[in-house]
Design goal:
eight-stranded antiparallel beta sheet; about 40% strand; single chain; about 290 residues
């Protein structure tokens, strides 16, 4: 679980010298950002800074000449529903405190207004911090669980900022997507509640379709035999999205990888939501 001190430090004031700045591209009115499992759209004219830590992915959106900032925070560890309430409590108050400090309202707490909003098709809870000074700044924090990850969006703006910041906020909320986690069946990282728990990572017996690999003339002439292990990732639809050989005779590996890519599986559900699955397919060869 993320500690409040680490989380406050990670969402503190923006460092424009931080590495990993994604510069906006020219051309289309909306730019699509996609990296490390996070994707969203945003209008041109903004910059994105990556301030991720080992515990959370964090992207900061800013615009030169403006005082506003948007933080996108995605906790790295997937959460089951029964873990969510404690995770939110651990996450929310430190971030709200940091927003209050940024608003220069640490001594006189700003007014807190609870609200609900939409992030994509999901409903999110939120808190708005309103400065007592009409010409001051306003902060908002919303949070929700997306694809098993606790996601927070923090928005700090001046009350005199132009309407472009509101457009960015709404565009971001409507387009934000988080990739589903990869369930490693050998490590048992999450405990599936609606599919049979698998203590082994060999997925041959789970396949709906498992094409046999070819056995080339070169491999046969070399009497290539034994077991080839192919590590795969199965996507939310049950298709193999990634395959690579990790063991076995070199002359047999390419055929096994090609066969593994054509395998089909039933989608894996965790608490009713599809997840990706990592495991292996093993192919056995006998040259005789």
């Amino acid at each position: 679980m993320t500690s409040p001190i680490k989380l406050v430090a990670s969402i503190a004031m923006i460092s424009f010298l931080s590495v990993g700045i994604f510069a906006q591209s020219a051309g289309p009115e909306l730019i699509h950002f996609a990296a490390h499992g996070i994707s969203f759209d945003y209008p041109s004219g903004y910059s994105i800074t990556d301030q991720s830590t080992t515990e959370a992915q964090q992207l900061i959106i800013t615009r030169q000449g403006s005082s506003f900032q948007i933080s996108i925070i995605v906790m790295r560890r997937p959460l089951l529903r029964n873990e969510l309430a404690a995770a939110i409590e651990n996450f929310r108050e430190p971030v709200i405190k940091t927003i209050a400090i940024t608003l220069d309202q640490s001594k006189t707490p700003p007014e807190r207004i609870s609200f609900q909003t939409q992030v994509g098709s999901k409903q999110a809870e939120g808190v708005r911090l309103q400065s007592a000074n009409a010409n001051g700044r306003t902060g908002e924090l919303i949070w929700l669980r997306l694809s098993f990850h606790l996601v927070g969006l923090a928005f700090i703006r001046s009350n005199v900022d132009d309407s472009g910041t509101s457009q960015l906020w709404e565009t971001l909320k409507s387009s934000l997507k988080i990739e589903a986690p990869v369930l490693d069946v050998s490590k048992n990282e999450l405990d599936p509640t609606e599919t049979a728990k698998n203590d082994l990572d060999v997925l041959n017996g789970k396949a709906l379709v498992l094409p046999p690999p070819g056995y080339s003339n070169i491999a046969r002439a070399a009497h290539a035999s034994g077991t080839v292990t192919v590590q795969i990732i199965i996507d939310e639809q049950g298709n193999v999205s990634s395959a690579r050989a990790v063991d076995g005779h070199p002359l047999l590996q390419s055929a096994c990888v090609a066969a593994a890519r054509e395998a089909k599986f039933s989608p894996t559900l965790l608490e009713g939501e599809p997840v990706k699955v990592a495991g292996v397919i093993k192919y056995h060869f006998d040259w005789r």
